[in-house]
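It is worth pausing here to work through a concrete case rather than discussing structure prediction in the abstract. The textbook approach is simple: state the sequence, then state the predicted structure, then interpret. We follow exactly that order.
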Amino acid sequence: MNLKFLMIALCCLPFGLDAQEAKLRENPYKELSLGAIKPKGWLKEMLIRQKTGSTGSLDKLYPAVMGNRNGWLGGDGDQWERGPYWLDGLLPLAYLLNDKELIAKTKPWIEWAIKSQRPDGYFGPSKDYPYENGIQRDNSQDWWPKMVVLKVLKQYYSATNDQRVIKLMSNYFKYQLKELPAKPLDHWTFWAKYRGGDNLMLVYWLHNITKEPFLLELGDLIHKQTFDYTNAFANTRLLETKASIHCVNLAQGIKEPIIYYQHHPEQKYLDATKKGFEDLIRYNGMAHGMYGGDEALHGNNPTQGSEFCSAVEMMFSLESMLEITGNVNFADQLEKITFNALPAQASDDFVTHQYFQQANQIMATRKTRNFEVNHHGTDVCYGVLTGYPCCTSNMHQGWPKFTQNLFYATADKGVAALVYSPSEVSMKVANEVPIKVIEETNYPFNENIKFTISIPKKGSATFPFHLRIPAWCKKASIKINGSLFKEETGNQIAKINREWKSGDVLELVLPMHIYKNTWQESSVSIERGPLVYGLKIAEDKQYVKNLTDPQEYGDGYYEIKPGTPWNYGLLNVRNDQLAANFTVEKQEGALSLYPWNLENAPIKIKTKAKRIPLWQVYNEMAGPLPFSTIFQMETEDKVEEITLVPYGCTELRISQFPVIR
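Step two, the predicted structure:
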């Protein structure tokens, strides 16, 4: 499986500075200003659908929380995490699209947050209110929601260079340094203790701008008060123990040792993170790139849920760790989640979503399932408020932040493309030479990626261009102006350092092949490049008006039931025979502007399978997965041809198949 390589590169990172030096190590990659990267092609369409969907109109779809009463607008309503969550996706979306309407929608939130700062440095809501159904009006001074607002303000500063953000953060961090000893991260709620890595990241970000020494002292204090992920990953059985940690806390916290590594570059932080990923996948991993967590960590059964918040927060953690380490495998895992789990969990119009998704999902209906937390059975239905509204609020950051991480500046004054999608970037290289790079590709459906370089003022410049070669790629080809430059094996970053002329074309070809990964009960997933493939199941989708509890779960939601059989086992095929037994069919003509559904799926894979009668519906889920080594497993006699489509194009699917030996 791809993840067996995860974190290997960490062991080879240079230590850099002595841990006691009062500065941070230089990272190999640096995030660009918000707005420097522009989406194109299908990726731009995805962001436009967010604008016309719930991201652009959550104040109308969810007015009880996102309306004028919100505490982060100065009101007496909800004042905890949900409003900030929405802004954490809305604001980068607004500036990526350079959309004046969306930018205007963010401004009242930004202005109120900045103007709310007191002389002692505190900012945000400060008064608690009595309970009111459906909104969170207490714990106004909790450290956790402010971490989200600080992330929003960081992005706002990146887009606007508004110096008020620097002043606010500096004063607030002085306030934290003074107050945290008596009121630690878990003083109001336990959430901040598990998510302190986000706070730490912002402290270090500010230090890279202002160089204020007190920030490193604060960073050490925050690290000390944050849950000890380093020890938990390295020395405990946390990740092999069910219900040991909240799934979103884990998705956010997994980056904390790597964040801290910037000031204390000790091998133990790299080793712990490596072991953490290995254990997470071994005991809880699933084909879509995420893990069983519904809401607590819940093992690797493919009918366990995976929370939407976990997906977008794990993406952000991987993006953050990629910038710090340059580890190829973080980028591989980021793409796996982005191109599989992420599009499957939201509707095509980006209005409705699932709170939990299942790797093997044969019904999306209102039913209490074997999840650690249930919300009156609504968790896998597609709705605006189904499940719990943290995901209603937090789902918006996934695609915008992925877009923001398509290109980086490099420590050697070049440009890096470490994850791939159609886009363009304007940036400076070498000795502050402005360039523009246009990335044309249908990746992840196509293996060809073309970069056209424009150097309008100078006409030429010498700088390195970094390209990631994924671990799944056996041999990549790099071409310059149509001629083969070199070939590279997978699991590395190729660097092309040369004099580039305006109009030069750099092409990367990543040949994709069929491969398998093995999961629970020796089930297998079928994968090609960064995409996982699931059984194509006819989807009977019906809108259900909610007459029972509309205040909690919305006026209605969509249920989906299967219209074709699903209980197939794959025939046993040796790895060296996969190409002969799995036929790849590519869509002719141009890629659909929105490829993420059954109708527009650009690639299909045909293969042979048999139905397994003992594998039946249980509690409106796929029943217990037949063990793939069952001796004399009873199957139907008929061998059928089945169709597999990209996981991200499905709402119902089997992605972890039993194997008929």
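Step three, interpretation. The two ends are 20 Å apart (CA to CA). DSSP finds 20 helices and 27 strands in the chain.
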